[in-house]
Design a protein that fits this description.
Radius of gyration: 18 Å
Number of domains: 2
Largest sheet: 4 strands, mixed
Helix content: 40-55%
Strand content: 5-15%
Bound molecules: glutathione
CATH class of the largest domain: Mainly Alpha
CATH architecture of the largest domain: Up-down Bundle
Strand order of the largest sheet: 2-1-3-4
Order of helices and strands: EHEHEEHHHHHHHH
CATH topology of the largest domain: Glutathione S-transferase Yfyf (Class Pi), Chain A, domain 2
Oligomer: single chain
Structural class: alpha+beta
Number of strands: 4
């Protein structure tokens, strides 16, 4: 009997969902997606994800939360192609870059920037806090870009020999930034600008673009239907409900 396709719970617009989808693609694994915005998760979603965050992976009897946990599970269970570099020191550095992306880039790119411009408007019907957006654009994003510019080995390069988990974890945040019209200044951060173009041009990201663009221009209540019509591999069942709830960690 052929294995059931994996189910990924979470919107195409989440950088953490995109990270998992990119890993699934690179490993050639089939999946279906329940493209929910996490605030719209129902009670069954709360049981699946006790902190009400996406992504969640359901792989037959295995249910996992957190993009890093999910990608490590995929790496353990489907080791080829390997998404971590060879050698203990390089593997540790790749994990650090992934952690830096998930935590620091997540904080700035998503909570201080995307949250203000997209979530506040389209989930809660609130105006953005312009001071937070300005601080992100003027101070915090440049600090992150300075750091990444130093960490990248050279123009046209990934962090290690070939596209891997560190690249995926970092690049995914730039796609959200791009969706709200942010572009890396190539004169100030040439390595990062080059890295972003190259990484986001890889099939594992590029194939998701139409579904991300569609999600951006479609009211949340119609995401699932519109994505299915556009050919996304949408799951049969959904963990969504019509009314949003505030998140466990932040409002
Ligand atoms: N560390 C988690 C972070 C996941 C996360 O923050 N997901 C966001 C969507 S981009 C979410 O579900 N937010 C809802 C909330 O925090 O209430 C991971 O790597 O999966």
């Amino acid at each position: 009997m052929s294995p059931q396709p994996k189910i990924v719970v979470g919107s195409y617009l989440s950088p953490y969902v995109r990270k998992v989808l990119a890993c699934l693609h690179l490993k050639g694994l089939d999946y279906r997606i329940d493209p929910i915005v996490p605030f719209y998760g129902n009670d069954a979603f709360s049981r699946l994800s006790p902190v009400r965050r996406i992504p969640v992976l359901i792989d037959e009897d295995v249910q996992l939360c957190d993009s890093t946990v999910i990608c490590e599970y995929l790496e353990d269970r489907y080791p080829s192609p390997e998404l971590h570099p060879a050698g203990a020191a390089n593997r540790a550095r790749a994990r650090w870059l992934e952690e830096f992306a998930d935590s620091r880039m997540g904080d700035v790119f998503i909570w201080r920037y995307w949250n203000q411009l997209v979530i506040r408007r389209f989930v809660w019907g609130e105006e953005p806090d312009q001071a937070l957006v300005d601080a992100a654009l003027g101070t915090e994003m440049p600090q992150i870009l300075d750091y990444l510019e130093d960490e990248l080995p050279g123009a046209g390069s990934y962090f290690f020999d070939s596209l891997g988990i560190a690249d995926i974890a970092v690049a995914t945040f730039f796609r959200n930034a791009e969706l709200v019209s942010y572009r890396v200044d190539p004169a100030r951060w040439p390595r990062v600008a080059n890295f972003v173009d190259q990484a986001l041009g890889e099939d594992c990201f590029a194939l998701l673009r139409p579904f991300e663009d569609l999600s951006m221009r479609t009211p949340i209540a119609r995401h699932r239907e519109a994505l299915a019509e556009a050919g996304a591999a949408v799951s049969e069942e959904s963990f969504a409900e019509p009314t949003p709830r505030r998140g466990v960690f932040r409002t």
